[in-house]
UniProtKB/TrEMBL annotation, chains A, B:
<dbReference type="GO" id="GO:0004766">
    <property type="term" value="F:spermidine synthase activity"/>
</dbReference>
<dbReference type="Pfam" id="PF01564">
    <property type="entry name" value="Spermine_synth"/>
</dbReference>
<comment type="subunit">
    <text>Homodimer or homotetramer.</text>
</comment>
<keyword id="KW-0745">Spermidine biosynthesis</keyword>
<dbReference type="InterPro" id="IPR030374">
    <property type="entry name" value="PABS"/>
</dbReference>
<comment type="function">
    <text>Catalyzes the irreversible transfer of a propylamine group from the amino donor S-adenosylmethioninamine (decarboxy-AdoMet) to putrescine (1,4-diaminobutane) to yield spermidine.</text>
</comment>
<comment type="similarity">
    <text>Belongs to the spermidine/spermine synthase family.</text>
</comment>
<comment type="pathway">
    <text>Amine and polyamine biosynthesis; spermidine biosynthesis; spermidine from putrescine: step 1/1.</text>
</comment>
<dbReference type="Pfam" id="PF17284">
    <property type="entry name" value="Spermine_synt_N"/>
</dbReference>
<dbReference type="InterPro" id="IPR037163">
    <property type="entry name" value="Spermidine_synt_N_sf"/>
</dbReference>
<feature type="binding site">
    <location>
        <position position="62"/>
    </location>
    <ligand>
        <name>spermidine</name>
    </ligand>
</feature>
<dbReference type="InterPro" id="IPR001045">
    <property type="entry name" value="Spermi_synthase"/>
</dbReference>
<feature type="binding site">
    <location>
        <position position="162"/>
    </location>
    <ligand>
        <name>S-methyl-5'-thioadenosine</name>
    </ligand>
</feature>
<feature type="binding site">
    <location>
        <begin position="137"/>
        <end position="138"/>
    </location>
    <ligand>
        <name>S-methyl-5'-thioadenosine</name>
    </ligand>
</feature>
<dbReference type="InterPro" id="IPR035246">
    <property type="entry name" value="Spermidine_synt_N"/>
</dbReference>
<feature type="binding site">
    <location>
        <begin position="155"/>
        <end position="158"/>
    </location>
    <ligand>
        <name>spermidine</name>
    </ligand>
</feature>
<protein>
    <recommendedName>
        <fullName>Polyamine aminopropyltransferase</fullName>
        <ecNumber>2.5.1.16</ecNumber>
    </recommendedName>
</protein>
């Protein structure tokens, strides 16, 4: 069988994964959902034709979006996760016993159900008693909350389709209000390399710094995302992602990771010159 | 015109680039050489079907393989570059006025000629009077030299075909001898992500640490190489890649780079946990 899933990273660049078979294909109220089994990457989740995660490299994304803020903020108890119906961020969060509540706002309940059935590697902790699932638009959910969360993780899809509202000034402003006075927001921040991704990255940064007094970008190597060079935003009211990193405290937890280390944490914030320039371009226009 | 160049990163993963036209195709004594014009990446060089460089992202590879050792070693005068017929490493080296001699040993003279004609962006400094080109096997060239170079840059192709000899214990041992007592060798070190690349990376590390007392790996985001997560080796007799990094001295040069910065330099050595483990596996068996 010669069956390939392809994603166009730009109109002129294509990334293709050989698949054994399609495990699921369905249309929810919001998007088309597909799950494939592949020899190289294990199971892969595809939304509207865009690859969301693979079992082989999802650990990189989920470790980096969760452990980076948790190694900085000294007492995270209440967490809001927006998007992330696959459960990967929740799985990493449940490794922290001091986290008492994880609210998950995912617009598409069908994604949650499909992942529970076909992607147990990521969805394995969705039944943890601390997890409260709200099947609703994260944009609307966050409006109703104020001064409540220590950490908000915005695990959105790309800035078009159902995830579009999660890249707006209104949304980031509401996240700011929903955070406590020392809260942190971390968000998936697109990629700097291909032109359209870089423009989306700059737009997101512009809108975030309109709401947050301090925001820094960090990076990871995610082989199945366009260009493999992926960014996250780290926006805070109080803590600095490097000056307030407490390596000894985090390492004393004994959490075993495959990508994240507190040393790598520092390096993740040391960006290439051209990425720094893109961010400065935005900041100078503030 | 719907014309695509594809490279299989593994038998199950394919990366494809739309091309406008083929500018050159020829067979040298060693390999097939192709140059394409592409809308996303500009001109691209392909050897035996493997993508070697694109005009859009070659700056990342060439800046990282040259400026990283130059920001550590305080007085580089004589440099040997092995491979690198495209001229990209030479271009970056010629930006340092204190470098008096750049010997280039490239096995395939036809690669040099083709790049001079079709890739002026990288080959633009091959006529610098400090550059001495030796069209011969780097493995043989380095055998004849002892205690001569401050820096050796091994800009090899992959560890099969004409580049195979540049991944052997004998070769690394001869590089050690060809270096002065405070010399540095930097080499392209494959990728940690896909299994076969990771095995090649571990083999290279094993052979290098049989010759060099100290060797560390550093990384960069290179979107057009398999997985986008690429490694370099930094092997020394004396200098430490971080403790001997002199940021003030390098920044005083005023060299403008698009990827490399002395801050990024540090982060490039902060590797993901799984890569550290792969290297430790090799080091424990020493």
């Amino acid at each position: 069988m010669d069956l390939w899933f392809s994603e166009k990273h730009t109109p002129n660049v294509k990334f293709s994964i050989r698949v054994d078979r399609q495990l699921y294909s369905g249309q929810s109220d919001f998007q088309r959902i597909d799950v494939f089994e592949s020899p190289e990457f294990g199971r892969i989740l595809v939304l509207d034709g865009y690859l969301m995660l693979t079992e082989k490299d999802e650990f990189i994304y989920h470790e980096m979006i969760v452990h980076t803020p948790l190694a900085v903020h000294p007492h995270v108890k209440n967490v809001l996760v927006i998007g992330a119906g696959d459960g990967g961020a929740v799985r990493e969060l449940t490794r922290y016993p001091e986290i008492g509540r994880i609210d998950l706002a995912e617009i598409d309940g069908q994604v949650i159900e499909v992942c529970k059935k076909f992607l147990p590697q990521t969805s394995c902790k969705m039944d943890d008693p601390r997890v409260h699932i709200y099947v609703e638009d994260g944009l609307k959910f966050v409006r109703r909350h104020a001064d409540e969360y220590d950490l908000i993780i915005v695990d959105s899809t790309d800035p078009f389709g159902p995830g579009e509202g999660l890249f707006t000034k209104e949304f980031y402003g509401n996240c700011y209000k929903a955070l406590k006075e020392d809260g942190i927001m971390v968000n998936q921040h697109e990629s700097p390399f291909y032109e359209q991704d870089a423009l989306a990255m700059q737009r997101a940064h512009k809108r975030i710094i309109e709401s947050f007094p301090f925001s820094r970008i960090y990076q990871a190597h995610i082989p199945t995302y366009p260009s493999g060079h992926w960014l996250f935003g780290f926006s805070t009211k109080k803590y600095h992602p490097l000056k307030d990193l407490d390596e000894a405290r985090w390492n004393a937890r004994g959490l075993k990771c495959r990508y994240y280390t507190t040393t790598l944490h520092r390096g993740a914030f040391y960006l290439p010159a051209y990425v720094e320039e893109m961010l400065e371009d935005v900041e100078e226009k503030r």
